Amino acid sequence: MLVASTLNWSYFTVAPYLLLLSLRKTYPPLIGRKMTGNAEPNRSVAANNTRHRLRLYLGNIIERFTIPEEIVIVVTALIVGAGTGLGAMIFIWLLQQIGAFTALVVANVGLIVGTLTVMAAAGAIVGLLIDHWASEAKGHGVPEVMEAIAIRGGRIRPRVAAVKVLASSLTIGSGGSAGREGPIVQVGSALGSTLGQILGFSEERVRTLVACGAAAGIAATFNAPIAGTIFAMEVILGRFTVRYFGAVVISAVAASVTSQALLGNKLAIQVPAYPLHSLAELPIYIVLGLVSALVAVLFIRVLYFTEEKFDRWRIPLPAKTALGMTLTGILALLIPGQEVLGPGLHIIAETIAQDFPLSLGFMAVLLIGKLLATSFTLGSGNSGGVFAPSLFMGAVLGGMVGKIAQGFWPDVVVNPGAYAIVGMAAVFAGAARAPITAILIVFEMSGDYKLILPLMLATVLSTLVAERIFPESIYTFKLKLKGISLERGRDVDILQSVTVDEVMTRSVQTVPESMTLVDLSDLFAQSHRHGFPMLDEDGRLSGIVTITDLDRAVENDLPRRTQAREIGTPRNRLLVATPAQPVGEVLRRMGTRGLGRMPVVETDAPDRLIGMIRRSDIIRAYDLAISRRAELQHRTRRMQLRNLDDTEFVDIVLESGDAAVNQRLLDIAPLIPSECILVSIRRNGHVVIPHGDTSFRPGDTVTAFVKRSDIERIQNCLRSGDASA
Fold it and tell me: Does domain 279-488 fall into CATH 1.10.3080.10?
């Protein structure tokens, strides 16, 4: 029986690949095979030529028949929505097949051995898929879509959709703790991006189709077109505009209609309709909102802490993903019923329907177990979403709050299940910083509109408190670690890529702290400056004195022999910068007090002045950051066009003793492969765009854009100083 099921599952999985091979042999130009003499096939060039010919053909049709712009937008949005809905159905079918295969293996081999074997094998295959074909499929997917919209004009590689479906199916179907919404969002976005690129659309319209795909993904997964639309506007695009709204709505509706036609019109979660029994419950919902914010922030920190630890290990990605799935399996086996495996929404629905009969202790175990299981699964590099796990944790947290409150006030708290429904929205809103989406998704998933007051109260409160505790969401934090800071869906914080050391003024005129008002007045008149650092008798920084301080002293009629130290800002109240600080951070600190300049001191000696950073220096830093980013984007675009399907972004973590540590980029440049770009260096939570004088330090995470065949060479170059591999 096991062999027969295995062959059946393998047939459906391998058959498309065998068909592709047969087509390649029969119709080489169709598949993109191009031979020159005895040379290897150049698939990427042929594929680019095919896409170019298709784009010209479709463009000619649009121009020949003079199709109105509105018709083009509506038709493309419908195609993306219907295609995403169909892709979601294929994804769900794959999940069912892999889930059935997993259950069969466990039944025949045994619970412990079967679970761990299948999960480890699935993790290894996922690692191979991501490592060799699409690194963007790693993790939960939504940040990659946001990055594509913000800085790549919405361009997503077509292969990402296929790899994401396969990797996520293996991850979730074998028991990984992840949701299916993230993969479908990325698949829909990749479909929209590919269609826009084939038709030769502008970057703005490609972004619109990417947002359409994201909305369609949520609509198809949860049968929630309204929430899908708002998710695309609130999270993916970061702004609400009429220009995007119409197309996104059409795409979400098309995806929902497609999924309903194939699966039927049923709610994602079947729960009772709980009312608000008493206004006295509102303070309890306020407490739930506050606690939800704490759990949401904890989820973000633990997830990315786990990801950082896995990224630092120098082992192949398939080994990491297999280890992460194995840890998830071990954790699940320790919890009765293995409730933390998979998305878990069906378990939550059943529990809410029974008004949460679980004990407080078991619910606490479920909450912590789900948080750790999701962190192990996704932090190790496996593929899946964070939407469903956050809903799971929110429901458990809400059930705990409802149970505790019912124990104290049984006449007020009648249904703990109502708190579970509100908790789902509150934790997701705190993690994603998307309160409107959270409210609507719970409405559409449950069909319960009777908890509007507590739902809005707890959700908004959770969002505000979580943002106060930790400013980045579970989606934007991943981008922040790459040096991308989003505001309204745009990458704005480019000053984070320039350090103070690169633009500060090193030749600084200082004054002794004992200088009198008369001498200070003459110095200001002669130099036309607005401020001077003050030094004590030993040459140490003791404060700063400005022309505003002098004017205030004159207005107060202070004695002419008054010394500078008596009117200036002393060292203990002085804001200072260090050479390694990003200019963006310094600018924010200066803006808080309205300062025009800031002394720069040694990192290890805060009283040793080495320079000043002024507004003019910050303007120069901005120009430098703009030019660097433009050059980097230009070089990256050229490399992508040259070999689109054979390039990868690779992260290399440096440690003490590596060859590149304490070396300048200029010194090791001759060893770096010619078709390799060092994109950024992540250092102590900040991102630096490298240039010739940039020195590498232990703990740096270097991101390189490189041909896949040169990955080992660049790793050897930075670690051992040997690029001959």
Answer: yes
